[in-house]
Amino acid sequence: MKDKIAEEFKKNSLDVKKRVLLKNYTTYKIGGPAKYFFVATDRDDLIKALEIAKAFGMPFFVIGGGSNMLFSDKGFSGLVVKISFSEFRKEGSKLITDAGFEMTKLASYAAEEGISGFEWMAGIPAGTVGGALFGHAQAFGYRMSDLLESVEVLNLKNFKIENLSKEQCKFALKNSVFKKNSNLVILSATFNVENGESQKVEEQMTNLLSYRRNSHPLDYPSAGSVFINPEKKIKNKKLLKDFPELANFNEKGIIPAGYLIDKAGLRGKKIGGAQISEKHANFIINVKNAKARDVIALIKLAQRKVKKIFGINLETEIRMVGFKSDIIK
User: Fold this and answer.
1) How far apart are CA 125 and CA 102, in angstroms?
2) How far apart are CA 10 and CA 248, in angstroms?
3) Whole-prediction pTM value?
4) C-alpha–C-alpha distance, residues 289 and 13, integer Å
5) How many CA atoms lie within 13 Å of 259's alpha carbon, on the beta-carbon side?
6) Is the pLDDT of residue 327 over 70?
7) Hey, is 71 helix, strand or coil?
8) Given this model, what pLDDT does residue 192 score?
9) pLDDT at residue 326 above 60?
Protein backbone atom coordinates (compact mmCIF):
# COMPACT_ATOMS: atom_id res chain seq x y z
CA MET A 1 0.00 0.00 0.00
CA LYS A 2 1.38 3.39 -0.99
CA ASP A 3 2.19 5.94 1.68
CA LYS A 4 0.55 9.03 0.19
CA ILE A 5 1.83 11.31 2.92
CA ALA A 6 5.43 10.16 2.44
CA GLU A 7 5.04 10.65 -1.32
CA GLU A 8 3.79 14.20 -0.75
CA PHE A 9 6.78 15.00 1.46
CA LYS A 10 9.12 13.61 -1.20
CA LYS A 11 7.37 15.53 -3.97
CA ASN A 12 8.06 18.73 -2.05
CA SER A 13 11.76 17.82 -1.60
CA LEU A 14 11.39 17.32 2.15
CA ASP A 15 13.71 14.71 3.64
CA VAL A 16 11.20 13.24 6.07
CA LYS A 17 12.26 10.08 7.89
CA LYS A 18 10.08 7.30 9.26
CA ARG A 19 10.12 5.65 12.70
CA VAL A 20 12.80 7.89 14.19
CA LEU A 21 13.40 7.36 17.92
CA LEU A 22 12.53 10.55 19.76
CA LYS A 23 14.80 9.72 22.70
CA ASN A 24 17.70 10.72 20.45
CA TYR A 25 16.29 14.24 20.13
CA THR A 26 15.37 15.04 23.74
CA THR A 27 17.46 15.92 26.77
CA TYR A 28 15.64 13.21 28.73
CA LYS A 29 16.85 10.50 26.32
CA ILE A 30 13.37 8.99 26.59
CA GLY A 31 10.72 8.44 23.93
CA GLY A 32 9.53 5.98 21.32
CA PRO A 33 9.43 6.48 17.54
CA ALA A 34 7.78 9.29 15.63
CA LYS A 35 5.77 8.04 12.67
CA TYR A 36 7.41 10.80 10.61
CA PHE A 37 10.33 13.01 11.60
CA PHE A 38 11.70 16.07 9.84
CA VAL A 39 14.55 18.47 10.57
CA ALA A 40 13.59 21.92 9.22
CA THR A 41 16.72 23.88 8.33
CA ASP A 42 14.76 26.92 7.15
CA ARG A 43 11.33 28.38 7.68
CA ASP A 44 10.12 27.62 4.16
CA ASP A 45 10.62 23.90 4.68
CA LEU A 46 8.98 24.13 8.10
CA ILE A 47 5.92 25.76 6.56
CA LYS A 48 5.72 23.21 3.73
CA ALA A 49 5.95 20.28 6.14
CA LEU A 50 3.23 21.64 8.41
CA GLU A 51 0.99 22.47 5.45
CA ILE A 52 1.18 18.87 4.27
CA ALA A 53 0.52 17.49 7.73
CA LYS A 54 -2.50 19.74 8.14
CA ALA A 55 -3.83 18.90 4.67
CA PHE A 56 -3.77 15.19 5.54
CA GLY A 57 -5.27 15.77 9.00
CA MET A 58 -2.15 14.34 10.61
CA PRO A 59 -1.14 15.36 14.15
CA PHE A 60 2.16 17.20 14.38
CA PHE A 61 4.48 18.52 17.06
CA VAL A 62 7.31 21.06 16.80
CA ILE A 63 10.46 20.80 18.92
CA GLY A 64 13.66 22.80 19.33
CA GLY A 65 16.46 21.44 21.48
CA GLY A 66 14.22 18.79 23.02
CA SER A 67 14.42 20.07 26.59
CA ASN A 68 11.50 20.54 28.97
CA MET A 69 9.47 17.70 27.46
CA LEU A 70 8.72 14.02 27.93
CA PHE A 71 7.69 11.83 24.99
CA SER A 72 5.67 8.68 25.49
CA ASP A 73 7.38 5.28 25.29
CA LYS A 74 5.01 4.59 22.38
CA GLY A 75 6.30 7.64 20.54
CA PHE A 76 4.17 9.99 18.48
CA SER A 77 1.70 8.87 15.82
CA GLY A 78 2.22 11.82 13.51
CA LEU A 79 4.87 14.25 12.33
CA VAL A 80 7.54 15.66 14.65
CA VAL A 81 9.40 18.65 13.24
CA LYS A 82 12.68 19.79 14.74
CA ILE A 83 13.42 23.47 14.16
CA SER A 84 17.08 23.66 13.22
CA PHE A 85 17.36 27.16 11.74
CA SER A 86 19.36 29.24 14.19
CA GLU A 87 20.63 32.50 12.71
CA PHE A 88 20.94 35.71 14.69
CA ARG A 89 21.93 39.28 13.97
CA LYS A 90 22.36 42.58 15.80
CA GLU A 91 20.71 45.67 14.36
CA GLY A 92 21.55 48.76 16.39
CA SER A 93 20.03 48.29 19.84
CA LYS A 94 18.13 45.16 18.83
CA LEU A 95 19.10 41.48 18.74
CA ILE A 96 17.11 39.22 16.39
CA THR A 97 17.33 35.45 16.82
CA ASP A 98 15.71 32.46 15.12
CA ALA A 99 13.62 30.12 17.24
CA GLY A 100 16.25 27.40 17.04
CA PHE A 101 19.06 29.56 18.40
CA GLU A 102 20.51 28.05 21.59
CA MET A 103 20.22 30.10 24.76
CA THR A 104 23.74 29.20 25.89
CA LYS A 105 25.12 30.67 22.64
CA LEU A 106 23.01 33.79 23.12
CA ALA A 107 24.42 34.20 26.64
CA SER A 108 28.01 33.74 25.39
CA TYR A 109 27.56 36.25 22.55
CA ALA A 110 26.01 38.79 24.91
CA ALA A 111 28.88 38.41 27.39
CA GLU A 112 31.48 38.90 24.67
CA GLU A 113 29.71 42.05 23.47
CA GLY A 114 29.12 43.42 26.98
CA ILE A 115 25.35 43.05 26.67
CA SER A 116 23.60 42.52 29.99
CA GLY A 117 20.38 40.65 30.77
CA PHE A 118 21.18 37.32 29.13
CA GLU A 119 23.64 35.93 31.70
CA TRP A 120 21.01 33.69 33.33
CA MET A 121 20.66 31.66 30.12
CA ALA A 122 24.17 30.21 30.43
CA GLY A 123 24.26 26.50 31.13
CA ILE A 124 20.65 25.71 30.19
CA PRO A 125 21.05 22.31 28.44
CA ALA A 126 19.87 22.42 24.81
CA GLY A 127 17.38 25.19 25.53
CA THR A 128 16.41 27.25 22.47
CA VAL A 129 14.88 30.70 22.18
CA GLY A 130 11.62 29.30 20.80
CA GLY A 131 11.17 26.78 23.58
CA ALA A 132 12.09 29.31 26.25
CA LEU A 133 9.50 31.77 24.95
CA PHE A 134 6.87 29.03 24.75
CA GLY A 135 7.27 28.18 28.43
CA HIS A 136 8.34 31.68 29.52
CA ALA A 137 11.58 30.39 31.00
CA GLN A 138 12.98 32.18 34.02
CA ALA A 139 15.75 31.82 36.57
CA PHE A 140 17.66 33.84 39.17
CA GLY A 141 15.06 36.59 39.06
CA TYR A 142 15.26 37.01 35.28
CA ARG A 143 12.50 36.16 32.80
CA MET A 144 12.55 35.43 29.09
CA SER A 145 10.25 38.36 28.45
CA ASP A 146 12.38 40.97 30.27
CA LEU A 147 14.23 42.25 27.18
CA LEU A 148 11.77 40.98 24.59
CA GLU A 149 10.23 43.39 22.08
CA SER A 150 8.30 41.06 19.76
CA VAL A 151 7.90 37.49 18.50
CA GLU A 152 7.50 36.44 14.88
CA VAL A 153 5.09 33.53 14.51
CA LEU A 154 3.51 31.31 11.89
CA ASN A 155 -0.26 31.25 12.34
CA LEU A 156 -1.44 27.78 11.33
CA LYS A 157 -5.01 28.97 10.80
CA ASN A 158 -4.04 30.75 7.60
CA PHE A 159 -0.29 30.01 7.34
CA LYS A 160 0.52 33.69 7.48
CA ILE A 161 3.50 35.12 9.32
CA GLU A 162 2.59 37.58 12.07
CA ASN A 163 4.42 39.70 14.63
CA LEU A 164 3.22 39.70 18.24
CA SER A 165 4.18 42.38 20.73
CA LYS A 166 5.35 41.35 24.19
CA GLU A 167 1.90 42.24 25.52
CA GLN A 168 0.19 40.04 22.94
CA CYS A 169 2.32 37.09 24.07
CA LYS A 170 0.47 37.17 27.43
CA PHE A 171 3.42 36.02 29.51
CA ALA A 172 2.78 34.75 33.03
CA LEU A 173 4.51 32.37 35.43
CA LYS A 174 5.92 29.66 33.12
CA ASN A 175 3.09 30.43 30.72
CA SER A 176 2.36 32.27 27.48
CA VAL A 177 -0.16 32.61 24.66
CA PHE A 178 1.83 29.92 22.82
CA LYS A 179 0.88 27.31 25.41
CA LYS A 180 -2.77 28.24 25.04
CA ASN A 181 -2.89 28.63 21.26
CA SER A 182 -1.44 25.66 19.37
CA ASN A 183 -1.91 27.51 16.07
CA LEU A 184 1.06 29.77 16.81
CA VAL A 185 4.53 28.45 15.92
CA ILE A 186 7.44 30.64 16.98
CA LEU A 187 9.86 31.56 14.17
CA SER A 188 12.05 34.29 15.66
CA ALA A 189 12.29 36.89 18.41
CA THR A 190 13.52 40.46 18.72
CA PHE A 191 15.17 41.63 21.94
CA ASN A 192 16.10 45.10 23.08
CA VAL A 193 19.79 45.25 23.97
CA GLU A 194 21.11 46.77 27.18
CA ASN A 195 24.83 47.50 27.26
CA GLY A 196 26.84 46.73 30.35
CA GLU A 197 30.47 46.22 31.30
CA SER A 198 31.90 43.07 29.68
CA GLN A 199 33.86 42.09 32.78
CA LYS A 200 30.84 42.36 35.07
CA VAL A 201 28.62 40.48 32.62
CA GLU A 202 31.15 37.65 32.29
CA GLU A 203 31.65 37.49 36.06
CA GLN A 204 27.93 37.17 36.68
CA MET A 205 27.60 34.50 33.99
CA THR A 206 30.49 32.56 35.52
CA ASN A 207 28.85 32.72 38.95
CA LEU A 208 25.51 31.50 37.65
CA LEU A 209 27.18 28.68 35.71
CA SER A 210 28.99 27.65 38.87
CA TYR A 211 25.72 27.62 40.80
CA ARG A 212 24.08 25.39 38.18
CA ARG A 213 26.99 22.95 38.21
CA ASN A 214 26.93 22.73 41.99
CA SER A 215 23.16 22.64 42.47
CA HIS A 216 21.71 20.90 39.42
CA PRO A 217 22.18 17.23 38.42
CA LEU A 218 23.85 17.96 35.09
CA ASP A 219 25.57 14.55 34.94
CA TYR A 220 22.31 12.76 34.09
CA PRO A 221 19.72 13.26 31.35
CA SER A 222 16.73 15.31 32.50
CA ALA A 223 14.16 17.78 31.22
CA GLY A 224 15.13 20.46 33.73
CA SER A 225 12.74 21.46 36.50
CA VAL A 226 9.67 19.21 36.51
CA PHE A 227 7.26 21.36 38.52
CA ILE A 228 6.40 25.05 38.59
CA ASN A 229 7.29 26.70 41.91
CA PRO A 230 3.89 27.38 43.53
CA GLU A 231 2.97 31.00 44.12
CA LYS A 232 1.42 30.28 47.49
CA LYS A 233 1.44 31.43 51.09
CA ILE A 234 1.10 28.86 53.85
CA LYS A 235 -1.24 29.91 56.69
CA ASN A 236 -1.52 26.59 58.52
CA LYS A 237 0.10 27.18 61.93
CA LYS A 238 1.15 23.55 62.37
CA LEU A 239 2.92 23.53 59.01
CA LEU A 240 4.65 26.81 59.83
CA LYS A 241 5.84 25.29 63.10
CA ASP A 242 6.96 21.99 61.55
CA PHE A 243 8.61 23.66 58.56
CA PRO A 244 9.99 27.05 59.73
CA GLU A 245 11.48 27.80 56.29
CA LEU A 246 7.94 28.35 55.03
CA ALA A 247 7.83 31.72 56.79
CA ASN A 248 10.65 32.97 54.56
CA PHE A 249 8.93 31.60 51.46
CA ASN A 250 5.70 33.32 52.53
CA GLU A 251 7.49 36.66 52.44
CA LYS A 252 8.55 36.01 48.85
CA GLY A 253 5.16 34.62 47.85
CA ILE A 254 6.68 31.60 46.14
CA ILE A 255 7.67 28.16 47.44
CA PRO A 256 10.36 26.10 45.69
CA ALA A 257 8.82 22.86 44.43
CA GLY A 258 12.10 21.10 45.20
CA TYR A 259 11.77 22.08 48.86
CA LEU A 260 8.25 20.63 49.07
CA ILE A 261 9.31 17.37 47.41
CA ASP A 262 12.35 17.10 49.65
CA LYS A 263 10.31 17.67 52.82
CA ALA A 264 7.85 15.05 51.58
CA GLY A 265 10.72 12.58 51.94
CA LEU A 266 11.16 11.88 48.24
CA ARG A 267 14.69 13.13 47.58
CA GLY A 268 16.56 10.23 45.93
CA LYS A 269 13.39 8.15 45.38
CA LYS A 270 13.74 5.73 42.44
CA ILE A 271 11.18 4.05 40.23
CA GLY A 272 12.57 1.93 37.43
CA GLY A 273 15.38 3.83 35.76
CA ALA A 274 14.20 7.26 36.94
CA GLN A 275 15.07 9.05 40.15
CA ILE A 276 14.13 12.22 42.01
CA SER A 277 17.55 13.83 42.13
CA GLU A 278 19.43 13.86 45.41
CA LYS A 279 21.07 17.10 44.30
CA HIS A 280 17.86 19.00 43.47
CA ALA A 281 14.47 17.44 44.21
CA ASN A 282 12.66 19.31 41.42
CA PHE A 283 14.66 17.32 38.87
CA ILE A 284 13.67 13.80 37.87
CA ILE A 285 16.70 12.25 36.21
CA ASN A 286 17.25 9.33 33.87
CA VAL A 287 19.81 7.28 35.80
CA LYS A 288 19.55 4.01 33.88
CA ASN A 289 17.54 3.61 30.68
CA ALA A 290 14.43 5.15 32.24
CA LYS A 291 11.07 4.83 30.56
CA ALA A 292 8.47 7.56 30.36
CA ARG A 293 6.25 5.50 32.63
CA ASP A 294 8.94 5.64 35.35
CA VAL A 295 9.04 9.44 35.19
CA ILE A 296 5.24 9.65 35.20
CA ALA A 297 5.08 7.41 38.28
CA LEU A 298 7.50 9.68 40.17
CA ILE A 299 5.57 12.80 39.09
CA LYS A 300 2.31 11.37 40.41
CA LEU A 301 3.98 10.21 43.63
CA ALA A 302 5.41 13.68 44.26
CA GLN A 303 2.05 15.31 43.56
CA ARG A 304 0.24 12.96 45.97
CA LYS A 305 2.76 13.37 48.79
CA VAL A 306 3.01 17.15 48.54
CA LYS A 307 -0.78 17.47 48.37
CA LYS A 308 -1.19 15.27 51.45
CA ILE A 309 1.40 17.11 53.57
CA PHE A 310 1.13 20.71 52.38
CA GLY A 311 -2.25 20.87 50.65
CA ILE A 312 -0.56 22.15 47.48
CA ASN A 313 -1.22 20.90 43.97
CA LEU A 314 2.08 20.73 42.10
CA GLU A 315 1.70 21.74 38.44
CA THR A 316 4.06 20.19 35.91
CA GLU A 317 6.31 22.44 33.89
CA ILE A 318 7.49 19.84 31.38
CA ARG A 319 5.31 19.05 28.36
CA MET A 320 3.88 15.53 28.06
CA VAL A 321 3.69 14.43 24.43
CA GLY A 322 2.02 11.34 23.00
CA PHE A 323 0.12 10.44 26.17
CA LYS A 324 -3.59 10.37 26.89
CA SER A 325 -4.69 13.90 27.74
CA ASP A 326 -5.40 13.01 31.36
CA ILE A 327 -2.09 11.28 32.11
CA ILE A 328 -1.16 14.09 34.53
CA LYS A 329 -3.90 16.07 36.23
Assistant:
1) 9
2) 59
3) 0.92
4) 36
5) 13
6) no
7) strand
8) 93
9) no
CA distance 142 to 121: 9
Q: Which of 5, 35, 6 is nearest to 19 (CA)?
A: 35
Return the number of other C-beta atoms located less than 10 Å from residue 219's C-beta.
Answer: 11
Strand-by-strand arrangement of the 17-21 sheet: 17-21, 33-40, 76-83, 60-63
Q: Given this model, what pLDDT does residue 256 score?
A: 96
Rounded to 5°, angle at Cα 147 from 146 and 150: 105
**What is the predicted pLDDT for the residue at 329?**
52
Chain-centroid distance of CA 11 in Å reads 33
Sign of the four-CA dihedral 155, 152, 46, 108: negative
Alpha-carbon torsion (42, 44, 49, 54), positive or negative = positive
What is the model's pLDDT at position 296?
A: 97
* Reported confidence tier of residue 154, pLDDT bands at 50, 70, 90: very high
**Rounded-to-integer distance, Cα 85 and Cα 97, Å:** 10
For residue 118, which of 174, 192, 219, 11 has the smallest C-alpha distance? 192
Task: Express each pLDDT in 264-286 by its tens digit.
Answer: 999 999 999 999 999 999 999 99
Strands (E), the chain: 17-21, 33-40, 60-63, 69-71, 76-83, 88-91, 94-98, 115-116, 138-139, 142-143, 148-155, 160-165, 184-192, 194-195, 270-271, 274-276, 284-286, 319-321
Q: How far apart are CA 34 and CA 61, in angstroms?
A: 10
